[in-house]
Amino acid sequence: MKLREPMPELVGATEWLNGQVTKDELIGEKPTLFHFWSISCHLCKEAMPQVNQFRDEFKDKLNVVAVHMPRSENDLDIEEIKKVASEHAITQPIFVDSELKFADALENQYVPAYYVFDKEGKLRHYQAGGGGMKMLEKRVNRVLNEVEKA
């Protein structure tokens, strides 16, 4: 997916945890951060406190949606997904992408991965891997600052 392309529809979830959201609900008022993670991904779990901090610190300014992307058959156990989500305080909506439909729509192959869309629903930043939380924070802040100036 290229920068400035529109957010795809949030279709193909095998299940939603912590509530469900639609593209229409996410676009218009505030930017959105999608974070891809997997229960078998150590780096995802290490990054979760920082993702949760974004969620809490910017709760009035930023939509945060978790996307659980399986990396193996073992990652398809919904009870295990619920357990790990609870252990890591993932309270934001979780799109369970067991058939990789949303990952395919974003052309994403990695966990952890982060997609930042502006309030119009255009992709503004993408990154994958365990490092770079400072860069993600800068990009999120840049998109949030545009909203405040608008």
UniProtKB/TrEMBL annotation:
**Matching SUPFAM superfamilies:** Thioredoxin-like
Q: Which UniProt keywords apply?
A: Disulfide bond, Isomerase
Single GO term (MF): isomerase activity
Q: Where is the Thioredoxin domain?
A: 1-145
Lipid metabolism as a keyword of this entry, yes or no, is: no
| Pfam families tied to this protein | AhpC-TSA
This protein's record includes keyword Cell inner membrane: no
Specify the domain of life of the species encoding this protein. Bacteria
Give the matching InterPro entries: AhpC/TSA, Thioredoxin-like_sf, Thioredoxin_domain, Thioredoxin_ResA/DsbE_sf
Q: Which Gene3D superfamilies match?
A: Glutaredoxin (3.40.30.10)
Could you tell me which PANTHER family the record lists for this protein?
A: THIOL-DISULFIDE OXIDOREDUCTASE YKUV, THIOL:DISULFIDE INTERCHANGE PROTEIN DSBE
Which protein, by its recorded name, is this?
A: Thiol-disulfide isomerase/thioredoxin
Question: What species is given as this protein's source?
Answer: Lederbergia wuyishanensis
Instruction: Give the source lineage, highest ranks first.
Output: Bacteria, Bacillati, Bacillota, Bacilli, Bacillales
